[in-house]
TrEMBL record:
Pathway stated in the Swiss-Prot or TrEMBL entry: Amino-acid biosynthesis; L-tyrosine biosynthesis; (4-hydroxyphenyl)pyruvate from prephenate (NAD(+) route): step 1/1
One family name in Pfam for this protein: PDH_C
Gene3D superfamilies attached to this UniProt entry: 6-phosphogluconate dehydrogenase C-terminal like domain, NAD(P)-binding Rossmann-like Domain
Record family assignment: Belongs to the prephenate/arogenate dehydrogenase family.
Record-annotated Prephenate/arogenate dehydrogenase domain positions: 2-278
EC number(s) from the headed UniProt entry: 1.3.1.12
Ranges for domain ACT: 294-361
InterPro entries per the UniProt record, alphabetical: 6-PGluconate_DH-like_C_sf, ACT-like_dom_sf, ACT_dom, NAD(P)-bd_dom_sf, PDH_C, PDH_N, Preph/Arog_dehydrog, Prephen_DH
Keywords: Amino-acid biosynthesis, Aromatic amino acid biosynthesis, NAD, Oxidoreductase, Tyrosine biosynthesis
Name used for this protein in its record: Prephenate dehydrogenase
């Protein structure tokens, strides 16, 4: 693949474009908003000039409801030999593409399973898709050249291709992406008018659960309106779980010992079912779920401390698998939680201790 057109240079389009230009591909950028395309170009994502001949692949990176229309326009102008999109929902766009009479042989649905809370080209990252699943939804009429072009795109972005049927994809993302987004928003919404003293107590738990509540409402409205029924089905099941959980908590408050015990058992079951579900979430790069150990280190809240700590870990030959930082309220220290392989814990703790770091148990 030598030439690619990116139509829609927001977060996802520009991230793909950056990954591709980084691999020496010529990328042509366009957007209904010329400023977005110019911004993407200024970041080194490609050129805003028009291609003089059909490109090898066009990536349609616009909201789900516009995929069909934009694809039809691009195909009418002969922009590319093959086409894909990146929309978070696959069935609706597929129906639209067929209804509008698009050339479906040279189009394959796609969805990179990576995003950020911000949108627009300025939030783009060349490594956004690295190690992440990238769903492709070929149909019997998808031709081989188009499938191969999409597979090459996925490889060039460092992602892992997952071939799925569009409806199965929509059910899956309703479970692992769309429902978690709504629940995160609902939990965070409880904080909107909460007492300041309560909010100040926020620790890592509520931060983890509400991280994605900072997402762009416009983008989520686009996504949820394209998958509303499937998400509503899952929320209905969750509502039943919530009902059971409320009943169990009420039971735990009664004076009747047997009822209290039954309530406790139900609550324990909820937490255990959660443990089992959480343990099924794949590790980095799609590896089997991995249990890392946490090494907590207190650092001063000042420039250069984190990089000094990371260099120390590298010197000890320890790979940091993940990292989180707890900031203590009102203090100029942070607690860095380094996630490492269990076998590396002792080496890291000893190395950091020897160099005077404040390692916490
Ligand atoms: N943001 C995320 O976390 C993820 C989003 N997606 C999907 O990627 C697609 C793009 O989303 P983002 O990049 O986040 O949105 P964004 O809002 O950052 O970018 C969308 C861009 O499309 C442009 N656009 C709108 N109509 C257009 C048209 N008719 N022709 C050309 N350009 C047009 C807009 O001006 C905007 O620059 C959506 O389908 C979304 O569902 C997929 C994975 C993750
Ligand atoms: O935070 C995450 O991991 C996400 O789930 C982000 C995300 C948002 C929308 C998508 O279509 C795909 C991924």
């Amino acid at each position: 693949m030598r030439t690619v057109a990116v139509v829609g240079t927001g977060l996802i389009g520009t991230s793909a474009a950056l990954a591709l230009t980084g691999r020496g591909i010529t990328v042509y950028l366009s957007d209904a908003d010329p400023d977005a395309a110019r911004t993407a170009a200024s970041l080194g994502a490609g050129t805003t000039e028009e291609p003089t001949e059909p490109v090898d692949l066009a990536i349609i990176a616009v909201p789900p409801a516009l995929v069909g229309k934009v694809l039809a326009d691009c195909q009418r102008h002969g922009l590319a030999r093959c086409y894909t999109d990146v929309a978070s929902v696959k069935s609706g766009p597929r129906t639209e593409v067929t209804t509008l009479g698009c050339d479906t042989e040279h189009y394959i649905g796609g969805h990179p399973m990576a995003g950020r809370e911000q949108s627009g080209p300025l939030a783009a990252r060349a490594d956004l898709f690295e190690g992440r699943p990238w769903v492709l939804t070929p149909t019997p009429d998808t031709d081989t050249e188009t499938l191969n072009a999409a597979l090459e795109l996925v490889a060039l972005c460092g992602a892992m291709p997952v071939v799925m049927d569009a409806a199965a994809h929509d059910r899956a993302v309703a479970l692992v992406s769309h429902t978690p987004q709504l629940l995160s928003s609902l939990v965070a919404a409880r904080l909107e008018h909460a007492d300041e003293t309560a909010v100040r107590l926020a620790g890592q738990g509520v931060r983890d659960v509400t991280r994605i509540a900072a997402s762009d409402p416009r983008m989520w409205l686009d996504i949820l309106s394209a998958n509303a029924g499937v998400v509503a089905d899952i929320l209905e099941e969750l509502a039943a779980d919530l009902g059971t959980t409320v009943a169990a908590l009420r039971a735990m408050e009664t004076g009747d010992e047997a009822v209290r015990r039954a309530g406790s058992a139900d609550i324990e079951a909820v937490i255990r079912r959660g443990n089992h579900g959480q343990a099924r979430i794949p590790g980095k790069h799609g590896a089997p779920p991995t249990r890392y150990e946490t090494v907590a280190v207190a650092i001063g809240d000042q420039p250069g401390e984190l990089s000094r700590l990371f260099r120390e870990a590298a010197r000890a030959g320890v790979n940091i698998e993940d990292v989180a930082i707890d900031h203590s309220t009102g203090q100029r220290v942070g607690l860095v939680q380094l996630q490492v392989e269990p076998s590396a814990v002792r080496r890291l703790v000893e190395a950091l201790g020897e160099r005077g770091w404040d390692v916490r148990d």
